[in-house]
Amino acid sequence: MTVHLSSPSTLMQPVPYRHVAVGTGTRHVHVSGQIARTAEATPVAPGDLAGQVAQALRNTYQGLTSAGAGFDDVVRLTFYVTNWEPTKIEAFMAGVTEVAEEIGLPLPMPPASLIGVDYLFEPDVLVEVEATAILD
Q1: pTM for the model
Q2: Cα dist. 97→54, 105, 108 in Å?
């Protein structure tokens, strides 16, 4: 395995992600921001944060697998969520847990950031996900 995930006890616990990822491979895979759209650009789960998180993660998985990677190779996830407020964490995590087993996303997740933004790609897009992975 090229990625070792850990959460030192000296950092905030519990969190739904690992605090640290150490990658030892030489090939980097960067998946651009993925949103809740099908391959034909059809919106998925309009107005539903959980549904959009799940679909954006599915699309991220597709990007990773196209490069020979999976979530076990991911050293960093970045989530951008429109009009973020703490009350949205339940819906956000529901989307993560809904799809985690299907796409092989470990829980807790690799190191991740959730960044609140005013606006994304189009008005109906509630979340965007970026991933960085390392392979041998």
Answers
A1: 0.95
A2: 8, 9, 10
> Got the DSSP string for 42-80?
-B-STT-HHHHHHHHHHHHHHHHHHTT--GGGEEEEEEE
6: left (phi over 0), alpha (psi -120 to 50) or beta: beta
Q: Note the pLDDT of residue 1.
A: 67
Is the Cβ–Cβ distance between 79 and 112 less than 8 Å? yes
* Residue 89 phi, psi (nearest 5): -65, -35
How close are the terminal C-alpha atoms of the chain, in Å?
9
pLDDT tens digits, one per residue of 88-103: 999 999 999 999 999 9
